[in-house]
Amino acid sequence: MGEVVLAAKITHVPSIWLSIHPGKHHGIRRPAELGLAEVGRRAKERGADTFVVADSHWMNSMSFHINGKARHQGSYASHELPHFIRDLEYDYPGCPELAALIGEEITAGGQKAMVHDVKDLGLEYATLVPMHFMNRDGDPIAVVPVGCNIYSSIDENRRVGEAIARAVLRSDRKVAFLASGSLSHQFPPNEVSSRYLDRISNPINEQADRLVLEQWRSGRIAEFLAALPAYNERFTGEAAMADTAMLFGILGWDAYTGHGEQLCDYFPSSGTGQVIVDFPIPDGLKA
């Protein structure tokens, strides 16, 4: 019987990649670097053998998709921001068996899922940036990316999260689940975007994000979830907040009473709101 050993909301912003390279931006995301490394340390300490990543940059328009390749290997440059991320080499094992179970459980829940073993289906940076900090020492942990359908509802993604939890419990894997996406995700206009590397696009977005973090830290999860559809719409949730809805679907949705532990200070990046929060695992997800 498998178990979920870690569940976290994480950042993946490309300025983190800039932060580790020489130049004028070196070190600007050091707290996020350390926070991601801490998530990786906790996953390994808890015996994780697989990262399941809800990747908000693997954006799907039809169905729910899981990358079931046995090995993920390649070199990545961001199509969106090639001046931020390029020459990112990666090589991680996959887990076809768990990917297949996730696909089965999503389908059993009444939704359409597809599991892929496609030569040219590479990884996106919402997986690659976190993995660089979490999964680089010793034998790499297996990686199973799950796409985010940008036209799905909060409720659909809740059910996908519940399906992922059922799949993990059917497996023999110890899984660290990562909801890789931002809080508010409003980009500034192109003409001024270069001025917003360390700024939020709108002050009201930061106020809303900080309220969300207060709700998570104080265990007011049901209150947050009741407002999530409106928050997603009004504050331009990344990939329809699919990763976040999956996260709380795994944790038990509005029955979850855990208190999130914030692992880095909230920070703005190119107009968006970013953070890393680790959520305690409820007993029902443990072996």
TrEMBL record:
<feature type="domain" description="Extradiol ring-cleavage dioxygenase class III enzyme subunit B">
    <location>
        <begin position="7"/>
        <end position="279"/>
    </location>
</feature>
<dbReference type="Pfam" id="PF02900">
    <property type="entry name" value="LigB"/>
</dbReference>
<dbReference type="InterPro" id="IPR004183">
    <property type="entry name" value="Xdiol_dOase_suB"/>
</dbReference>
<keyword id="KW-0560">Oxidoreductase</keyword>
<dbReference type="InterPro" id="IPR011984">
    <property type="entry name" value="HPCD"/>
</dbReference>
<protein>
    <submittedName>
        <fullName>3,4-dihydroxyphenylacetate 2,3-dioxygenase</fullName>
    </submittedName>
</protein>
